[in-house]
Design a protein that fits this description.
Blueprint lengths: L1 H13 L25 H13 L1 H19 L2 H5 L9 E2 L31 E2 L6 E2 L4 H7 L40 E3 L2 E3 L1 H29 L2 H17 L5 H4 E2 L14 H22 L3 H13 L9 H18 L10 H13 L3
Parallel strand pairs: 1-6
Antiparallel strand pairs: 2-3, 4-5
Helix pairs in contact: 2-3, 3-6, 6-7, 6-9, 7-9, 7-10, 7-11, 9-11, 9-12, 11-12
The structure holds zinc ion.
Length: 355
């Protein structure tokens, strides 16, 4: 399946459809009527192979096992995985920093982040201490506004203490506490949550969940995987246009003006392309999923979303507008090393509007 997708992509690029000088912006809503990169007959063949061949069965079982944590989550939990852009994101905890507990160097990308097992924490690779020391998730929930987006001014700051040292007279009561803008000690700032948002919540829980759910759907044809993926994809689409890495995030402890969405430009480019392929992969399962419409329309009403999600067409429009047409209009946010951006744009265009 991946070979076919790559083949189509290669054809797109070599025929010049994806030349960056071309206007790649189909702004009028199209009616997508099927999967482009995952033709039904090939997908069916792949599923039949899982019954016939041991190697295919093993591949299927691997992706099913990988999707299991997200399949077990409730629809509400899946929806709540995505966050808004209101907490400063950081490409590193502290690029040349050390662990506040053991003081050993933990530079660049060496903090251990394992969001499924250790949500809202980063772990020192030397001493194993986890940060931040406060229950950030509880603090985060206390600050969600009527749109379901964190607002620091609403959050309960009484929750900002080291849960391992709850006694206010304990000298470690405030140690390692991060309100979203980092733990500060002297001149040093550790952006535990700012980096966790990118590497844990976004790349592992949101993107990883979508990737694993879509793969499990492709391999099994079980709409339960596509249902969860659609909820998450739709919620990402609600918020994706509000992400702007250049004004909201820091790299090497500074605002360098680097473009991007949730992630910085080179990762945003690949992530958005992958989101298009995920949408394309699960698309055939969405028709007839009435639970999807009832769940998302209730969320839209409760959180005052502009798109009412009253039909599958509304949901597809939300996903296509929020994730893909927004990207085509704002290609500077995914401007990457040639030819990555035209490949992403061509993939998105094909997924949106392939005849
Ligand atoms: Zn340490």
């Amino acid at each position: 399946m991946r070979g076919v997708a790559s083949g189509i992509l290669v054809w797109l690029v070599v025929t010049g459809v994806a030349h960056p000088a071309l206007d790649l912006t189909p702004l009028s809503p199209a009616v997508k009527d099927g999967s482009v990169f995952f033709p039904p007959d090939l997908v069916e063949n792949g599923r039949r192979n899982c019954e016939k061949y041991e190697w295919a069965r093993q591949a299927r079982d691997t992706v099913v096992a990988a999707a299991e944590p997200w399949l077990r989550m409730s629809d509400d939990e899946i929806w709540g995985l995505m966050f808004g852009p209101t907490i400063t994101r950081s490409w590193m905890v502290w690029s040349n920093g050390f662990c506040p507990a053991c003081r050993k160097p933990v530079p660049m990308y060496t903090w251990v982040i394992d969001a499924l097992r250790l949500p809202w924490k980063v772990r020192c690779p030397h001493c194993g201490e986890t940060f931040p020391k406060n229950d950030f998730y509880r603090f985060y929930l206390s600050g969600l506004d009527e749109r379901g987006v964190f607002d620091a001014s609403r959050a309960d700051r009484a929750l900002l203490y080291n849960v391992e040292h709850p006694d206010p007279s304990d000298p470690l009561h405030r140690f390692g506490v991060d309100d979203g803008e980092g733990w500060v000690e002297g001149d040093h700032r550790w952006r535990f949550i700012g980096a966790y948002l990118i590497y844990g919540q976004w790349k592992q829980l949101v993107l990883g969940g979508l990737r694993n759910l879509a793969a499990a759907y492709l391999a099994t044809g079980d709409g339960a995987y596509a249902h969860k993926a659609a909820i998450l994809l739709d919620r990402v689409a609600d918020l994706y246009p509000s992400f702007d890495y250049s004004t909201q995030a820091v790299t090497y402890e500074q605002r360098l003006g680097s473009n991007g969405y949730v992630s910085i430009w080179h990762d945003a480019c690949e992530e958005t392309r992958e989101l298009a392929l995920i949408y394309d992969a699960i698309f055939p399962a969405l028709g007839g999923d009435e639970e999807l419409v009832s769940f998302l329309s209730a969320k839209a009403a409760r959180y005052g979303l502009a798109n009412p999600k009253a039909s599958l067409a509304d949901i597809c429009r939300n996903i296509e507008d929020g994730l893909f047409r927004d990207t085509l209009r704002n290609q500077h946010k995914i401007a990457s090393n040639y030819p990555r951006t035209p490949i992403a744009a061509a993939t998105i265009m094909a997924v949106l509007d392939w005849d």
